[in-house]
Amino acid sequence: MKITDAHSHLMVKFLMYREAGVEQNIQMMKKGGIDRACLFTSDFLSTDGSLTPKAWEERMNRKIAESVESHPTRLVGFGTVDPRIEGAAERLDSFVAKYGFRGAKFHPWHQDFPCGDVMHPIMEVAARHRLPIVFHSGTPVYAQPLAIAWLAEYFPDVPIVLAHMGLTCMYVDAVHAAKRYENVFLETSCMPYTPVLERAVSELGPHKILFGTDTPFLYPYIEILRIQRLAINDDDKEMILGGNIERLIDRSA
Amino acid sequence: MVYRIFDAHAHIGRDLFSEMSAEDLVNGMKKWNISKAVVSPMGRAMISNIAQTNDEISSIVKSHGRELIGFAAANPWYGQESVEEIDRAIGSLGLRGIKLSPATQGFPVNHEIVHPVIKAAINHGVPVLIDTGFPVVSLPFQFGDLAKSFPDATLIMGHMGLADYNWFDALVVAKSCPNVIIETSSQDCQISFEQAVKDIGEERLVFGTDVPHTDPVVEIRKIETLDIPSSAMRKIFSENIARLLAL
C-alpha cells in the first residue's frame, strides 16, 4: 500500500522551533513508513524583518521547490502567498508556473486574514490549475471550518481540504461542511478522536478523508498508527492513507 | 521497557460521539496493559441527576475495586446543592476526586460559579480534573486564572490545553502555578511533553487516555516513545497519579 501524507511542513525558525532542512522530513517519513508527502512551508508570515513581504514569499516558495527537487519522488510541493497583499492571485499563478506546485496551503489565523472574499481571486487560480487548496482549520476566529468551507458555495470545483478536520473541538463543523459540499475534504492530523474518525468515514464516505501528519510538529509514526488501527475495511484505509490525496494532486487528472 | 500504567482520565457512559461500559473499559485495560484507571462520567450524566450519576460511578468502582478509581461529577450550576453532593460523593460514596467539563456543562472555568466546588475539593483534600482547550470556556489561561485564585486546590489540566499552540499557554500557566498538574490525553504534540519535563519537572505530569474518545494504544505509544529520562516516564505513567491519590 502506498502511503501519501497530505500535510507536512518544512520547518523554519519559529517560536521554540529551530530551522531544520528537508532531510529531517525525509527521516521522519521513513520512520513513519510514509512514501510521499505534500510539503508546505511553516513560515507563513515572514520571520525575517530584512525581507519585504514579497521577497519573503519568493524565498519561502523557492525553498519548497528546492526541497521537492532534492527528493522528487518523495515530496509534492505546495505554495502559498500572503492574501492580504494586492496581486496575491497573480503571484500564486506565477509560483505555480515557475515551481510546478500541485496545491496551495493557507493558514488563516497565522497569515492573519478572514477567509472570505479575499480568497476569491486565489480560488479562481486554483480552479484554472486544478489545484487543491489546504486550509488550517479548527481555530476560532479566522480558521473556523464553516467559514473556510463557505468558499465551496462559490467554487464547487476546487478541492478544499480542511486540515485537522476541525482540530478537536470543531470537528462537528468540519464534518457538516464535508457533508454539505462535495468538494470539501477532511484531513486527519491532530484528530485524536477515533470514534469521530470512524463515524466520518461511514457518514461521508472514505473518499472524503485524507491522511495527514503535520510533520514535523507532530510525529508521523503516531498519526499513522491511529489510522491503521481504525475499525474500517482495508480498501477504505488504502484510500484514506494515500489514494485520495494522490488523485487530488494528480496533474493528469 | 514495560511501564506500569495508570490512566488518570477515563470515562464511562455516553456523550455526543462515543460510549463506554464498565465491562468494556475493564476488558480493554487488560489489552492495553493499563492496570488502574480513574473513571468519571461524561455527556448528559455530567449535567443533571448528578446524585444518580455519582451513585452509578460509585457502584462501578466498588465492583472493580482493583482496577478503577472514581471521580465524582459536580455541576457548579447547582450551587450549594453541588457542594452537598460533593460531601456525599467523597465522604460516603468513596469517590476520590472531582471532574468538571466546562464545555459540556456550560460555564467559563474561571467564573465565580465554580468557586464553591473548588472550595469543597480543598476541604476534602481531593484533586479536580478539568477538561481544557475549548475556546471561550476552558483555555489554559482561563484555567490558570482559577488556579491562581485557589493555590491550595490541586487542579489537573485535562488535555494540556488540547489543540493548536495551546500547550505553550499550558506551560506558561503550569510554570507559575505549582498547584497545576498536566494530563496528557488527546494532546497530539509530543514535543509539548518533552518541553514540559524541562519546564516544570517530572512530578506534575500524569498520563491519561480520555478513552473512549481516543485509542489508548496510540496514547500510550505517544508517551513511551518520548525523549525523556526513564524516571520521568515512570512518574508520568503511574507514580505521579498514585502519589496524588495515595493509591
In short:
The complex is a heterodimer of chains A (253) and B (247). Chain A is α/β, with parallel strands linked by helices. Chain A is built from nine helices and eight strands.
What tags apply to this protein structure?
heterodimer; A: 253 residues; alpha/beta; TIM Barrel; 5-stranded parallel β-sheet; 3-stranded parallel β-sheet; 9 helices; 8 strands; B: 247 residues; 8-stranded parallel β-sheet; 10 helices; 10 strands
Which structural category do the helix and sheet elements of chain B fall into? Answer: alpha/beta
For the record, give the distance between the C-alpha atoms at the N and C termini of chain A, rounded to a whole number.
Answer: 21 Å
Total number of strands of chain A: 8
CATH class of chain B: Alpha Beta
CATH topology of chain A: TIM Barrel
User: What would you say the CATH architecture of chain A is?
Assistant: Alpha-Beta Barrel
Number of strands of chain B: 10
Order of helices and strands of chain B: EEEHEHEHEHHEHEHEHEHH
What is the helix fraction of residues of chain A, given as a range? 40-55%
The average pLDDT score of chain A comes to: 95
Can you tell me about this structure?
The complex is a heterodimer of chains A (253) and B (247). In chain A, helix 7 links the parallel strand 7 (184-187) and strand 8. In chain A, helix 1 runs parallel beside helix 8, helix 3 (88-99) packs parallel to helix 4 and helix 6 runs parallel beside helix 7 (194-204). Chain A has a 5-stranded parallel β-sheet with strand order 4-5-6-7-8. A 3-stranded parallel β-sheet of chain A has the order 1-2-3. The radius of gyration of chain A is 17 Å and the shape is globular. Chain A is built from 9 helices and 8 strands. Chain A has helices at residues 22-32, 53-70, 88-99, 120-129, 145-149, 171-180, 194-204, 220-228, 234-249; strands spanning 4-10, 36-41, 75-77, 104-106, 133-136, 160-163, 184-187, 209-210. The two termini of chain A are 21 Å apart. Chain B is α/β, with parallel strands linked by helices and 247 residues long. Chain B has a single domain (6-245), classed as Alpha-Beta Barrel (TIM Barrel). Chain B contains 10 helices and 10 strands. In chain B, the strands form 2 sheets. An 8-stranded parallel β-sheet of chain B has the order 1-4-5-6-7-8-9-10. A two-stranded antiparallel sheet of chain B has the order 2-3. In chain B, strand 8, helix 7 (166-176) and strand 9 form a beta-alpha-beta unit. In chain B, helix 6 (140-149) packs parallel to helix 7 (166-176) and helix 7 (166-176) packs parallel to helix 8 (190-200). The chains are: A alpha/beta (253), B alpha/beta (247).
